[in-house]
Amino acid sequence: MSKINSNLWFRLIRLCLFIFFILLITPAIYNIVNYKLPAQLTLISFMKKMYSKDFEQAYSLYYDETRQKLQLTDLELMAQENNFEDYRSLSFRHFKLLAALSGHPELPPLTAEIDGFIFYRDNTTRFYKAVLVMENDKWEIESLEINTTINMP
Fold first, then answer.
1. pLDDT tens, 70-88?
2. Residue 33 is part of a domain; what is its CATH number?
3. C-alpha angle with apex 68: 66 to 132, nearest 5 degrees?
């Protein structure tokens, strides 16, 4: 009888560990699917639009408040200064999800900070940092800072 009880306890412990693992991993999967991947896709879309010199569409990916301060000519200058004609790919290093204080105190927008590297065809790399805001269930770029070139071997 004690062998049956120990077997039952063993199964119960395994079941509890399994449930704990599921409860632990579910929010992470939810955040990746609902927040991280769509934010990354917004940045990839922006980079592709800048590469193809579709500045109007790239401009449309910016947050409303940012568009009020940003001119279309600013994106053209950004494309020249950051060598977008040689853009190859984008990597993501960190993703940080947070709520930001805004002009809507009852419901602050969801904000994400993303950084990583931009890779170019001439084997140069630049570090970037972006802040995106969730507006109407889609990510929009609040700011994008691209730093100096790093030469890769």
1. 999 999 999 988 889 999 9
2. 3.10.450.590
3. 15
Residue 29 corresponds to which tokens in the numbers above? 């999967």
Tokens 């105190």 sit on residue: 105
Domain count, the chain: 1
**Residues forming beta bridges with residue 129, ordered by sequence position:** 115, 145
Strands 110-120 and 124-135, by their bridges, are antiparallel
Domain carrying residue 129:
2-151
Angle at 54 between CA 50 and CA 58, to 5 degrees: 60
Distance CA 2, CA 111 (A): 55
C-beta of residue 50 within 8 angstroms of C-beta of residue 84:
yes
Q: How far apart are CA 14 and CA 71, in angstroms?
A: 59
Q: Do 88 and 119 touch, CB atoms closer than 8 A?
A: yes
Give residue 16's pLDDT.
Answer: 83
